[in-house]
Amino acid sequence: MKGYSRYFWFIHFLGDIILINFAFLCSYFYKFGSLISDDRYTFLLLIFNFIWMFTAFILDLYAIKRISRIDRILLNLLKAGFINVFVLAAILFSLNDDSPFSREHLYYTYAGVFSLVLFWRYTSVKLIYLYRRYGYNYDRVIIIGGGEVAKGLNDYFFSDNILGFKLLGVFSDISISFNTNVNIGNLSEIKQFALDNEIDEIYYTRALTNTEEIKDLVDFSDQNLIRFKVIPDFSGFPLRRVNIDFFDNVPVLSFRKEPLKDNINRLLKRVFDIVFSSLVILLILSWLYPLLAFLIKISSKGPIFFKQKRSGLDNNEFMCLKFRSMKKNSASDSKQATKDDNRVTKVGSFLRKSSLDEFPQFFNVLKGDMSIVGPRPHMIAHTDQYSALIKKYMVRQLVKPGITGAAQVRGFRGETKELGEMEGRVKWDIWYIENWSLLLDINIILRTVFNIFKKDEKAF
């Protein structure tokens, strides 16, 4: 990056540190009525700062791409906060101090840190946006090529001023396939234009088989302190969303982004699942279970729980729990519930429409077979059936199944009469896998609750 951009990370870092210490000291003053007069709390403040610095740099919180959107800011703060709490708790536990630190002070501190840093990050991003909007601090770039990849780059450079790019020209030996309001030229004009306009970066989108042309432009760029970047065309691949990793110097392409491959994300989701399911079991199921158990027993003969093998993570089978809503029948492992299904009891009809029949699955979540949010677990027979009919069906098995999911809150719950309905469910399940965030989980949970009170037509 050019100009002051190289210092943006330090500005954010310095602001975080100032606000963390401010929150700590204000919390101490609020709790004890004075500034720090205890060496133990001075030590705690030093530890607090060290853990934050360690966490921030481990998670790469100060990369511009990670601070440009409020949802990413919030998610990264949640990650950093979780690690901070975990490490600090481990350190304090290891000290085995007879005079423990005030929990209230720590609660106030974390609440203050989260609120202040979130506000600071959001404000600073807006200030950077305004700074660049008025023409300051940007990299001058040109694009070589006129195809779809060049079009995508052109659209990207004009999508948001906070990115810090100013596209000055597009050069191609074919007609440009998109509209742009910058200089358009042919390949022979590249070098002179780059020198005359003090270009910082060149983006090459033509075929990689033009090795001599690429080598010549690389040499020219190196000689004139211009960064040369090659953008490969993946339009011929089955999926356009390509991620690149490196095993030493070997580039490795993957065609699906999976946030839950990240250990921190998995840990964050698992902790959320444990806390949420434990609260539901303690606060709701503890008194609801005896009542529903009694109603189920008097409605028809049979057990309280309905247990069925379902397809889980990595297509491993697990025993899924539900409150029994049907009379005992031989088709339960192959036939979906339908509208006005005569197998459903009167109590079972209420349970299904209110989604109370799913509540025992919180025990599945606590055990680790399921998550609160994820693709719904299907019967083994349906997994075998639809995996042969729908491409990418098995992708949904890359994560734990959920009590609710993105597909369910978008109308793809319950019976699937047509193949297209299952295809729609799979589409949203894959979308969830590729776009997971803790905020997305919370959003889906809230929409699920809303749908319950709205009386979903497909709940039967």
Structural class of the secondary structure composition?
Answer: alpha/beta
How many separate helices? 14
General shape: flat
Largest sheet: 5 strands, parallel
Percent helix range: 40-55%
Distance between the termini: 57 Å
Work out the oligomeric state of the chains in this entry: single chain
| H/E topology pattern | HHHHEHEEHEHEEEHEEHHEHEHHH
Which residues sit in consecutive blocks of at least 5 with pLDDT less than 50? none
Q: What is the strand arrangement across the widest sheet?
A: 3-2-1-4-5
What is Rg? Answer: 28 Å
Average pLDDT number: 83
Strand fraction equals: 5-15%
| Domain count | 3
Give the beta-strand count.
11
Write the SSE topology.
Elements: H1 8-32, H2 39-58, H3 70-95, H4 103-133, E1 139-144, H5 148-157, E2 165-171, E3 183-185, H6 190-196, E4 201-204, H7 211-223, E5 227-230, E6 243-247, E7 250-254, H8 263-299, E8 305-311, E9 317-323, H9 346-354, H10 361-367, E10 371-373, H11 380-389, E11 402-404, H12 406-409, H13 419-434, H14 438-454
Parallel strand pairs: 1-2, 1-4, 2-3, 4-5, 10-11
Antiparallel strand pairs: 6-7, 8-9
